[in-house]
Amino acid sequence: MLRLNKLTKTYKTGDQALKAIDLEIPEGQVMALIGPSGAGKSTMIRCINRLVEPTEGEVWLAGTELTHLGASALRQARREMGMIFQEYALVERLTVMENVLSGRLGYVGFWRSFLRRYPQSDVDEAFRLLDRVGLLHMADKRADELSGGQRQRVGIARALIQNPKLLLVDEPTASLDPKTSRQIMRLICELCRERGLAAIINIHDVALAQMFVQRVVGLRFGAIEFDGAPDNLTPDVLTTIYGEEDWEATIEKVEGEEDIEAAE
Amino acid sequence: MSHRELDDMLGKGWRKPPMVTSPLLRWGLILGGVAYLIAAVLTIEVDWSRVYEGLDRGWQFILSFTRPDFVTRAGDIWEGLLESIVMTVAASVVGILISIPIGLGAARNIAPMPVYLICRGIVAVSRALQEIIVAILLVAIFGFGPLAGFLTLSFATIGFLSKLLAEDIESMDRVQAEAIRASGARWMQWINYGVQPQVMPRLVGLSMYRIDINFRESAILGLVGAGGIGATLNTAFDRYEYDTAAAILILIIGIVMALEYLSGIVRAKVQ
Question: What Pfam families does the database record attribute to this sequence (chain A) (predicted)?
Answer without folding.
Answer: ABC_tran
